[in-house]
Amino acid sequence: MLLNLLYLGAIAVLSPWLAWRALATRRYRRDLASKLFGRMRIENTSRRPVAWFHAVSVGEVNLLGTLVPAFRKRHPEWLIVVTSTTDTGLAEARKRFAEHAVFSWPLDFTWSVAAALNAIRPSMVVLAESEMWPNFLAAAQRRGVPVAVVNARMSPRSFRRLKRVAGLARRLLFDRVSLFASQEDEYTGRFRELGVAPDRCLTTGSIKYDGAAGERDTPRTRELGQLLNLGGHLVLLAGSTHAPEEALVLDAFAKLHARHPRLRLILVPRHPDRFEEVARLVEQSGLSFVRRSRIGSPLAAAPAVILLDTVGELGAAW
Predict the structure, then answer these.
(1) pLDDT band for position 312 (50/70/90)?
(2) What is the C-alpha to C-alpha distance for residues 278 and 307, in angstroms, rounded to an integer?
(3) What is the pLDDT of residues 105-134, one digit of tens each?
(4) Whose CA is closest to 299, among 224, 223, 221, 228?
(5) Disulfide check for 229: which of 53, 151, 190, 299 has CB 3.0–4.6 Å away?
């Protein structure tokens, strides 16, 4: 109950900003029934076991792109449910996992998570990387549902913060997770320092490498290169950028481009709702540029900067 009050208080304080963001970016407005009330429905009349996989956004959804098929191959009798937190992650999940049930992740209110767990009735929950919420973990624990965090990570900043409240973090989070499968030994060590039992944390390496393309000569990369007319050019790629990284990259690129005219920049902001903002930034730089979303046929000549304002093409660009 206390957590619910804290969440509601935070929403009340942030409501002007949230309303502005919702109007400006259309965020937070989709799938409100799933988010607020945990309204989800799956067809499981034969009572097959259910594995619930959760990915915060597009990057984690791509991570599940290798994990879910591998799980499905080993356990073809299980039903799969996939959830995501962000609008872009949800759109990508619905595209990647069209054959499975895909929903928005419920907000961490007791009623939302209880309704979602009661509707899905998972036999296990798999969280990608670091998405742990206390009410959800408590509700899963009460129902005897094991929760695993895969590709788990623990940054130095998060570690320092959690170490100050290690006892509380153990009670609310870590003691309610059955397994932490970490990307690196360093992360595993941090989980253990925070009180996670050694038999509940291990190092598996990063799952992201499992689905990474190891060669450049792929159909998607060739198609993108031809569309952008990048043959004969050197390419600088700045991907998954946040502010103020775009400004820094553009400044460095302008100096390099003056010395190396064959150099081209592909700029890929991390969040789609910043595409317009970054487009204005590139325009103000005075460099010639084009937006990928407005290219319908192969370019006659590649401009200095290509703004990759699409979702799902960063892998081909890399």
Answers:
(1) confident
(2) 8
(3) 999 999 999 999 999 999 999 999 978 999
(4) 228
(5) 299
Q: Of 111, 107, 95, 103, give the one whose Cα is nearest residue 133.
A: 107
Residue 295's nearest CA partner among 217, 219, 225, 231 is 225
pLDDT for 288 equals 95
Report how far residue 259's alpha carbon sits from residue 165's, in angstroms, rounded to the nearest whole number.
52
User: Residue 31 — left, alpha, or beta (φ > 0 → left; ψ -120 to 50 → alpha)?
Assistant: left
Which residue has tokens 């961490």? Answer: 108
The pLDDT of residue 141: 97
Beta strands in the chain (DSSP E): 50-55, 79-84, 101-104, 124-128, 147-152, 179-182, 201-203, 234-241, 263-269, 289-291, 305-307
| C-alpha to C-alpha distance for 124 and 146, rounded to whole angstroms | 5
How far is 162 from 26, CA to CA, in rounded Å?
Answer: 33
Report the alpha-carbon distance of residue 89 to residue 87 in Å, rounded: 5
Q: What are phi and psi of 66, to 5 degrees?
A: -100, -35
Residue 22 contacts by C-beta under 8 Å, 6 or more apart in sequence?
28, 29
Helix axes 134-142, 2-25, angle to 10 degrees: 130
Helix ranges restricted to H, 26-165:
32-37, 58-74, 87-96, 110-120, 134-142, 156-164
> What mean pLDDT do residues 22-26 have?
57
pLDDT tens-place string over residues 188-236: 999 999 999 999 999 999 998 886 666 777 888 999 999 999 988 999 9
